[in-house]
């Protein structure tokens, strides 16, 4: 099983550590594609701070993030599971997993990244600022770039197992499963139910997905079909409704009454 996560906008910068070595990251076939995005981002942020801020959707008080991007080639790195922060990652709590769960996360979790494409929790990367909907000079849209390169890497990572896709819409555009893989893909939508009405609450959605990943890693179950995955979630205490298979996989609705 491979659990595919979105990145976080917020990241914790390492205080010390070696610079990023692209050829040492997992999914080595992505090295050239990663280098192209890194060159485009560093080049943009090194040449004109104000233009870079505009391209990256940053305000005038966020120029420090532009400067951080300009120095990415030499910036210190840390494990991806320590760099990414935010609601989902706080709820998942990589650092407080049991030893066995941490070991499982090394092969069962991957993060979609606008800068690096696909990362394993142990990959050492610098903190950066680049959204999945950005368009970089000389590269084009980040999403379009990764659509050309990610499929082999995702297939290698998932192998013959189930892919649990927890990405947000922006990062789902980086890669979509081909028909032969869709039957082994399960997507998850978290719904809050109150007085008979259901809706998606962004913060709650992210926190619940983080708790789901944590519970799966601690449990150690390794379902191989969407139906078996739904059963695992029920065994772990969630109310789950299964949808019909689609070209993008089988959607599971996790319905919760409490935020």
Can you put this structure into words, describing what you see?
The protein is of the alpha/beta class. The protein has one domain (2-256). Helices cover 40% and strands 20% of the residues. The protein has 12 helices and 12 strands. The strands form 3 sheets. Strands 1, 3, 4, 8, 9, 10, 11 and 12 form an 8-stranded mixed beta sheet that branches. Strands 2-5 form a two-stranded antiparallel sheet. Helix 1 (31-47) crosses helix 2.
The total domain count is: 1
**Biggest β-sheet: count, sense, barrel?**
8 strands, mixed
Query: Using only CA atoms, what is the Rg?
Result: 18 Å
Discrete helix count: 12
How far apart the termini lie comes to: 28 Å
Order of helices and strands: EHHHEHHHEEEEEHHEHHEEHHEE
Shape designation: globular
* Total count of strands: 12
The low-pLDDT segments are: none
DSSP strand (E) fraction? 15-25%
- Mean of the pLDDT scores? 95
The structural class is: alpha/beta
Helix content: 40-55%
